[in-house]
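>> Question from a student workshop board

For tomorrow's exercise we were told to take the sequence and the ligand below, predict the bound structure, and bring the output to class. My setup keeps failing. Could a helper post the expected result so I can at least see what it should look like? The ligand is NAP.
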Amino acid sequence: MDGMTGAGPAHSAKAGIVLFGATSGIARAVAARFAAAGESLILIGRDGAALEAMALDLEKTLGAKPACIVWDVLDFPGHAARFRALTTVHSLKGVFMAAGILFPQDECDRDPEKTRLTLETNLTGPAVILDMFAGYFRQRGSGFISCVSSVAGDRGRGKVLAYAAAKAGLSAYLAGLRHRLAGTGVFVQTVKPGFVRTRMAAGVKSRLMAEPDRVALDITTAIRDRREVIYTPWIWKWIMLIIKSIPAPVFRRLKL
Ligand SMILES: NC(=O)c1ccc[n+]([C@@H]2O[C@H](COP(=O)([O-])OP(=O)(O)OC[C@H]3O[C@@H](n4cnc5c(N)ncnc54)[C@H](OP(=O)(O)O)[C@@H]3O)[C@@H](O)[C@H]2O)c1
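>> Workshop helper replied:
Here is what the output should look like for this input. Compare the format with yours to find the bug.
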């Protein structure tokens, strides 16, 4: 499958919310909450069959099947044309970006390609794509951009060297975008989850592991309330405050 399916050629009557990385554990839970609120959705991801299955499932709640678009965040030459095609067919009110990838750092150490993929999937791709959404919403004077970064971006750590660097860059990008779009009517939100029970966190054992639906509730509530930076669950705000305040010589000795 390539390109658009499901919505038909006519311009959608109701402005939709785009879910990028729609098949992610977190985005699925966010989609379910948006669907329950009656929002019109457009699902974007790199696995067409998984998107179609998700759309059929959401149809049960929405009464209409969301459109599905196959779009890889690493397809840099194709981004502009795909964005034009998207906005020709659909009118948009917001975008939720959840695409991301995490390799164990020792795999990145052995294979520089994985470091590149980590930086491009978590930072370069989302930034290039969100730039286009920012331009679209700015022109209309409204819209929201909500993007999943991570608590990992709050302080560089050897155990997740490439991933933390990418998420730090993404958080800085979103802060800059918020600054750039101030006063335009466009709302930009940074989401910083801790551990969330999804494919990405498979194998992680932590008492702090959160369920995707809990995180999705935090995200959709914060979009409604226009909260610019959220930690989810909230406890991570305080955990990261402590972690950021640990002096470097002490931090180096900790096995975090
Ligand atoms: N789970 C956690 O503990 C945690 C904590 C903090 C932040 N996050 C962030 O939360 C976001 C969602 O992750 P998740 O936890 O829900 O994990 P997930 O289920 O593994 O989702 C990752 C998503 O990224 C998509 N993706 C990966 N490479 C892509 C590419 N090149 N182009 C388009 N999409 C691509 C995947 O698509 P496919 O389905 O095709 O693989 C999948 O939909 C990520 O940004 C992640 O970094 C997660």
